[in-house]
Amino acid sequence: MEFAGLAAGIAVGFGVLGPGLGIGILTAKSSEAIGRNPDAAGAVRTNMILGAALAEGLGILSFVLGILLWTKIG
Amino acid sequence: MELLFPKGFRFPDIPNNFALLGEPIFQIGGFSYTNAHFTMLLVIAILSSLAFAATRNMKLQPSGLQNFMELLVQGLADFVVEIGGQKALRYLPLLGTLFLFIVFSNWLSVVPFVGQVTWLHSPTADYHITFAMAFVTWVAYQVEGFRHLKLSYLKRWFNLSGFKDGPAIGGIFVAIGFIELFSEIFRMLTLTLRLWGNVIGGEIMLVVMSALLFVPGFALPFVGLEIFIGLVQGLVFMLLALMYFMFAIESHDETHEEGSHTDTDRVADLEQHPEAVAA
Fold this sequence. Notes:
Chain A has two helices and no strands. Chain A is 85% helix and 0% strand. Chain A is mostly helical. The longest helix of chain B is centred in the last third of the chain and has 46 residues, at 167-212. The A-B interface holds A 42-43, 46, 49-50, 53, 56-57, 60-61, 63-64, 67, 71 and B 20, 82-83, 190, 193-194, 196-198, 200-201, 232, 235-236, 239-240, 243.
């Protein structure tokens, strides 16, 4: 189990990469949408939060995996 | 550098022993009563007494606490109606309670000593409690699905109607049903882990940042971030639960058309649909 710490770091690092990119694209696109049509800001914001939550869930899964590995250390 | 580190620079000790779960206080039979349970009771007591104090002496022209609570409830109701339409108001009691409980617990997790002393541990920072909330939501929306669509609710998981258009379409429908069935379980799992991971991750980040930044109080911006995340996570839990309710009660029939009289999603105005005002 001497590599558990390394494994946790890699798991969380790569696992957060995807959701990070996804949420970035999501926020950029919804800012654009709100800029184009400010009247729809409420609906766009709700959808944005929903999508961000779904994308974030994957990052959290890798975080949980990291914690599981981390408790194996020592 | 001399002034900051008189004994030479030394990287600070970062704590690596965090309470990922509540710790048992005492045992009853095979079940342990943890400090998360105790804090949950505390949260319930505070919220109930707030609700009681706000509604004990209600006036037509509200002021003070009653005004604030009315703002809160009206805001939640407006939010739910905006997302799910009038028929979503039926689920407001469950969703609103979940929202208030989660947000209060999340904000409790950034309060000093909560999560560090024996008797206090934020309820949402223990995955048993977030799982319980996710499970209650899950059971509730399955029940609602069966209540609305009767046995045709099962059609979204075991859909054989595609076979009349040939085996390829039928196979695809069956595969989609299979994926749907599994996603039901994953919904419960991700609801649990999202909330727990965010709250426990926030707690860990606060402790680590306080240790890294040497000076007490430098980690305060992260407290602000955590307060924001706590609010957003409460909102997200509520929003996702509402979405699951909406997905559960909407029919997948091909005869179902947008804007037809069977489409109760969008009620133009309340007078046409007096019995829709539930809750």
